[in-house]
């Protein structure tokens, strides 16, 4: 098997800031964030509110908080800063990993399987590996050639399944066309499925009252961004655009657990803008540049743009630039809050991968 | 363990109709239905259409078939006859079971676990057992007393897991309050989970491209009723009212596989009628009598009413009558098609339980 294995042992996790001359921590704001970073699983999965219908005095007419923004309001949309939120989360993770190392001598490990030389895949993997290093997670990168047989990839995954220093395994998608992604992903053991794509994880995410071992990273990122921005979810109309198993499906399922009223739109939906333009929150994960124009959005809506679409541009450094699914400039004219691309969902999604890996290591080491 | 086991060996499956005096089958219509009854798994799970977005020439404006019914039309709503559809399906199942018995000497077996003396539960179990007998499925009923320990129920399930003559196990819900339903249901082996409530089944239902071993019966029944009534699903706006794991959740997931645009409404939804009144199809599984009034429905909508709600009525034979979630008389004034309660979804749901049990037996006996 031609596998290039790189074990990238992270430098010691960043130390906490030194006490200053009067015995007070420097950067207290950041280190407050460390303690506050961790959203409990219960809050990420939301309380299991009983479904008690009251048709005679419906919630519908009395409980709906009116939109905060009307046509005559002077809208100053909030730009939701994913980079800053991700940094806060990473600081919290780094702090926990230091404690883990101090008490057990061990740190979490993430294995990444990369097949071929796709430039975008290599970039994504580089970001993930760098993020691991930053928080003190040991990353192991298995690089396989484009033309290797599928069995080599399955074997690489199987070896990581057995390695007790590895707590999370991710296979960078897409795989070369001659491989069956389903089969390769199925080889990842449930306990190390930090992407949360295993059907048992998806089933447990779908069923209120049950707990998946891992929640898919992009779905977690969307909820983090919304909750940290003070956006209420219970009873809100949310349009999710896209239904992929990586993004759209788990986002829809997780939002339902947060008691939002979710409409899932896809490429076969007729008049999707009729639904999105009534939604309090629009989450777009279609992977189509500039799909969502101004007429798709209600005034005052909150927009989370998961799309990261390369657009060719000979004038930019790499020959392309990245843009979201949402026409950003148009949206700014109507929304109350929006995530930019890049710098929105992306960094928080990577932070959630680190968080899932840490959770997995805590389980493996029997830490509460 | 105080378990009363009743093995109800079905009488021989009903024989095909005899040839009449001129050598032609009697009741040809019914026996044509036998051959046509079986919807392939592929058609029940729907084709896996790729999500190709075309934002520049959107499907939205060109492909939407206008509603067939306008305000001035003289609506003659179609009453979808669940009893007749269920009978057709049962005839088909009986025919397959005869063939199975002829070729292997074996028939499918369904085990039902009933705890306590709840009148409604006993009724439901009686219907299921009768339906088994009618098609040639052997049913085994395990009756346990209301006050038995949870472990007795788990043991009953475990024994059925080991019994090779049992291909499906169902535990009649609700269980007494001192029992953990989750724990009891988890004891049912995946291969015999004919209700389809196992999280792995739910995950495989949620993920396009994967196949659950069993699709939950009520969800299958809704699709059967819609497809047999000629209702197109691709791209249609469907409002599902209710999100229980028994009904609402699997219906939403299955409809998404059929490429409908699904909005899932629940007790915390604000202004649910705003969404339902824009839907081409409304499926109500809230369990609230008369929740859905005329103002919740678009003119020409198709309504599938899964609700089966007892309403006290001292004048009726049993002291109550059954009604759906939908105000039937009001709905008749606007809809293009509707299922009645009773006689709509209920009988087809039981037929789907028989179908799942037959599928399980076919798998166990290695039949294609």
From TrEMBL, chains A, B:
Domain Tetrahydrofolate dehydrogenase/cyclohydrolase NAD(P)-binding per the UniProt entry, residue ranges: 216-363
Which is one GO molecular function term here? Answer: methenyltetrahydrofolate cyclohydrolase activity
- UniProt keywords, alphabetically: Hydrolase, Multifunctional enzyme, NADP, One-carbon metabolism, Oxidoreductase, Photorespiration
Q: Which reaction does it catalyse?
A: (6R)-5,10-methylene-5,6,7,8-tetrahydrofolate + NADP(+) = (6R)-5,10-methenyltetrahydrofolate + NADPH
Q: Which domain of life is it from?
A: Eukaryota
Q: Which GO terms describe its biological process?
A: photorespiration; tetrahydrofolate interconversion
- GO CC annotation terms, alphabetical: cytosol
Domain Tetrahydrofolate dehydrogenase/cyclohydrolase catalytic stretches: 80-195
Any matching Pfam family = THF_DHG_CYH
The record's InterPro entries line, in alphabetical order, gives: Aminoacid_DH-like_N_sf, NAD(P)-bd_dom_sf, THF_DH/CycHdrlase, THF_DH/CycHdrlase_cat_dom, THF_DH/CycHdrlase_NAD-bd_dom
Keyword Hydrolase (UniProt): yes
Identify the pathway: One-carbon metabolism; tetrahydrofolate interconversion
Q: Which family is annotated?
A: Belongs to the tetrahydrofolate dehydrogenase/cyclohydrolase family.
Spell out the subunit comment: Homodimer.
HAMAP family attached to this UniProt entry: THF_DHG_CYH
Q: What is this protein's function?
A: Catalyzes the oxidation of 5,10-methylenetetrahydrofolate to 5,10-methenyltetrahydrofolate and then the hydrolysis of 5,10-methenyltetrahydrofolate to 10-formyltetrahydrofolate.
From the Swiss-Prot or TrEMBL record, give the protein name: Methenyltetrahydrofolate cyclohydrolase
Q: Which organism is it from?
A: Apostasia shenzhenica
């Amino acid at each position: 098997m031609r596998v290039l294995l790189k074990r990238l042992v992270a430098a010691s996790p960043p130390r906490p800031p030194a006490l200053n001359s009067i015995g007070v921590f420097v950067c207290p704001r950041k280190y407050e964030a460390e303690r506050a970073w961790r959203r409990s699983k219960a809050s990420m999965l939301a309380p299991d509110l009983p479904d008690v219908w009251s048709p005679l005095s419906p919630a519908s007419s009395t409980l709906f908080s009116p939109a905060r923004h009307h046509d005559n309001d002077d809208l100053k949309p909030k730009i939701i800063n994913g980079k800053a939120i991700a940094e806060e989360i990473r600081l919290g993770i780094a702090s926990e990993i230091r404690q883990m190392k101090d008490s057990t001598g061990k740190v979490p490990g993430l294995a990444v399987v990369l097949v071929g030389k796709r430039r975008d895949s290599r970039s994504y993997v580089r970001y993930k590996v760098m993020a691991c290093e930053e928080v003190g997670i040991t990353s192991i990168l298995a690089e396989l050639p484009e033309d290797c047989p599928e069995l080599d990839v399955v074997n690489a995954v199987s070896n990581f399944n057995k390695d007790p220093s590895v707590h999370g395994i991710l296979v960078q998608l897409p795989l070369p066309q001659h491989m069956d992604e389903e089969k390769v992903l199925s080889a990842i053991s449930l306990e190390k499925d930090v992407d949360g794509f295993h059907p048992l994880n998806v089933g447990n995410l779908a069923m209120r009252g049950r707990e998946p071992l891992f929640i898919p990273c992009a779905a977690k990122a969307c909820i983090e961004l919304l909750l940290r921005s003070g956006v209420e979810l219970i009873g809100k109309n949310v349009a999710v655009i896209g239904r992929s198993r990586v993004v759209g499906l788990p986002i829809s399922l997780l939002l339902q657990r947060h008691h939002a009223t979710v409409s899932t739109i896809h490429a076969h939906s007729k008049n999707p803008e009729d639904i999105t333009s009534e939604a309090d929150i629009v989450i777009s994960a279609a992977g189509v540049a500039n799909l969502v124009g101004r007429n798709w959005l209600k005034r005052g809506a909150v927009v989370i743009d998961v799309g990261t679409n390369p657009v060719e541009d000979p004038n930019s450094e790499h020959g392309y630039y990245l843009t979201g699914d949402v026409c950003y400039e148009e949206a700014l004219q109507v929304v109350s809050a929006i995530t930019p691309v890049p710098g929105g969902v992306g960094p928080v999604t990577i932070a959630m991968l680190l968080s899932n890996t840490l959770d997995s290591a805590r389980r493996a080491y029997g830490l509460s």
